[in-house]
Amino acid sequence: MSPPETTGPPPLRFGLIVIGDELLGGGRQDRHLAHFKALLQGRGLDLGWYWLLPDEPEVVTAHLRFSMACGGPVFVCGGIGATPDDHTRACAAAAAGVALSRHPQAAALIEGRFGPQAYPERIAMADLPEGSELIPNPVNRIPGFQLRDHHFLPGFPEMAWPMAQSVIEDRYPIAGEPLRALAVRIVGVPESRLIPLMRRLGPRFPEQKLFSLPHLGPPPHVLLGLRGRAGIETAFAALCEELAREGLAYEVSTAQ
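The structure assignment produced for this chain is given below.
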């Protein structure tokens, strides 16, 4: 048996947190997940996880505290405005264990944008966790902020997406080829029949992620495949060889 192919360190796995009762309640549909997944994968980066949270300070703070402790880059969309239901700035400070204080550069930007109308309410958007760095906003100049490898952006896609693009280009170099998926469709075979094969194949190609997706049909079938980057063709060829050795018929399919 040949040793597994080595391709260097794995790409960064990003987290995505989207905050908003209007999304959970169905008043709006979340568009961030699909966009961030495509944005990251196009640069050879991975979206590792995604949370959709309510506008509840205790929930947001607990999740941010957990993600900050885990490490890794995270995009957070929503809740950084000045209305009473915008809790993200205070929650980020509480999660990081720092004070919320007026950021002079953010205050100058908000004053430059609104003049006297910045007071008394809009200026609250300059109250950021201590140690924050600003993320420029090309749409209305009211910045987002960065803290503990978390990038806090507005909930509006029209603002959040160009800001995220800038963050990625500035901080995260292209990691390599994009994530790919290769799969086969196996009809009339229970998923349990494939478990021994998966157990044999997985350790041979640890850099590829093996998956099995059963479909009730019609006809009932299993989508069996791998997700990965360099070396995925070799692993997929080995998967097909294992299926042939087991006498299991299959057809190559596009993984979903």
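Interim note for the steering committee: The helical segments are 21-24, 32-41, 57-70, 88-96, 104-114, 157-171, 195-201, 232-245. The first strand starts at residue 13 and ends at 19.
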